[in-house]
Amino acid sequence: MSKQKAVDNFERWAQLVQSIAETRGSNAKIELCANYLAQLSPSQLALACQYMGEGAFSNISGKRASIGSRTIGMAAADYCKIDYDIVFKACRTATGSSTETIQRLFENLTETRQKNILRHWDLAHISELAEKLAQTRARKDKQRILTRIWSGLSPLASKYFVRLLSQGSLRIGFESRSILQALAKIYEVDYEQLRYAHMLTGSIAKTAELVSTHSLDQAQFKLFNPIAFMLAAPIQSRSVKDWDTFIAEEKFDGMRCQLHAYGSKVELFSRDLNVVSNQFPELVDSFAIKDLPPVVLDGEICVFRESIIQPFQDLQKRMGVKKPTQALLSKYPVVFIGYDVLFLERESTVKQPLTQRRISIEKLSKTYKFPISSQHAVSSKKQVEQLFEQALAHGNEGLMLKQKNAPYSFGERKNHWLKVKQPSGSIDTVILYAQAGSGKRGGSYSDFTLGVSVKNDARYEEEFIPIGKAYGGYTDQEWKQLNKAIKGCIINRFGPTAQLHPEIVVELEFEAIQPNPRTKAKYTLRFPRFKAIRWDLSPSDVDSLEHVEMLFEEHQSKKRNPQKSSHSFLKPE
DNA sequence: ACTGATGCGTC
DNA sequence: GTCGGAC
DNA sequence: GTCCGACGACGCATCAGT
């Protein structure tokens, strides 16, 4: 085998990734990565970067392996000739990770090891194998292909192959930013320039290819190529005093959308840059007949009926439907509300200050008759509070505060845009079940099922019934305290789940109460999280289901104001 | 042809 | 979407 | 000041099992 081949193969890549995972400190990680990448040819480099930053498929390919943790876990159990439910799941609970479990089982089971013949596949071949999995429909066939792949890979490489198949990251504390830094180092280019190019290409592989062939200037903002959205931070993360440097808009509870248009061609992109044009044909049609100049708009899709913005749950009925029927279209009619312009005529406008972009979008809205958000000048906290109340009355989530002179920082969550929200409420609940977490939360209980009281409720036999699950909102220290307390009240175990004697009271905060007939309580919480562990309270203090129902009714009775005397958005006639 | 589990993407 | 914590 | 992983509910599409 030639020297080149050894560097190029997937085993070597997996070893490098493992050593990055084990190394502390991002500079050291970048150094390791740069040393490895520097040995690769341009085409290998692109793949190596893609695998590290994006997975088996490039972000812009739109491809998916469509194979989830259960299918993979069962294939692994089958390959190792162990029981999935009893052995595999238990190992996963102990290690906190499916892929870690796979590596250890493959290493330690003699029979499995004997099936293993290293094939030393190169990086390109790994792409072909992933492609084959993506093209296979039936889960059984996927599992068969997967086990065949494992038999040709080391346990370590098998672990990382599985991680490549998932949409998320490799979880080695080394994300796209670090890969870009390594590339910047090797090719001696400015990191900011590289980041900018990366945003425009939307793909690490493509960026790596451009930088390695010294053609970064080819990365350009192109119509019908989406770019990452600018994101907002919660206002609590910044103490605002200079109110007048911001403008306010209502924060719509809809779906973020980037609209690209030129003449009769229109394309819609979601927050993750997926094409969603098929889901919203009426939007595509209505913009197609406007004969717009080349333009990219940022905005929100909402269900809008009888002059009232409808709840997010209505929109959910449209989001996943790729071929909506006429009946669905008329039951849940949508609007696109524009609030920013990122490209106009021949050039990107992202570097312009917001005020200037606003002038452009107002002009466009007037000429081509499409809705844009209402914008308000603000000068005091009091005024912001008034606008906030008005936003809620319109059925919106709250406000967005946007810095007037800020550019559109695509792909970043900066303090230039702030979201103003208020938790809808909180209830006192009791922990009923605890489950082990995964990754850095592996091995300890970190995932809790919380219940409300139905003690005096004729409809139920039980004392408490689940209202939701929560993980977030407590600190590492509280997490330790919780685990200590839980040990004392376990009354039953079902695999990784422990049933607890109801003792620990948690104040649970949420964004909304949603009716859901499929659950025992008939209600669930939107965005539930710990507000406080109430060591001072006892189970008898836990709120009742009736209380939850009352909160829901209270909220439900508040009418959503029609867009008449005041407006969340403006639609020129 | 129907039902329930699983996967995926939205917030 | 949410959060706490790492960097 | 930003980024990142580890998590929530929901609805639709797709597939496995009957």
Structural class by sheet pairing and helices: alpha+beta
Rounded radius of gyration (Å): 26 Å
Low-confidence stretches: none
Level of helix content?
25-40%
Tell me, rounded to a whole number, the average pLDDT: 89
Query: Which CATH class of the largest domain applies here?
Result: Alpha Beta
The outline comes out as globular
The total beta strand count reads 22
What's the name of the CATH homologous superfamily of the largest domain?
Answer: DNA ligase/mRNA capping enzyme
Named CATH architecture of the largest domain: 2-Layer Sandwich
Structural domains: how many? 4
- In DSSP terms (H or I, runs of 4 or more residues), the helix count works out at 21
Give the CA-CA distance, first to last residue. Answer: 71 Å
Largest sheet at a glance?
7 strands, antiparallel
CATH topology descriptor of the largest domain: D-amino Acid Aminotransferase, Chain A, domain 1
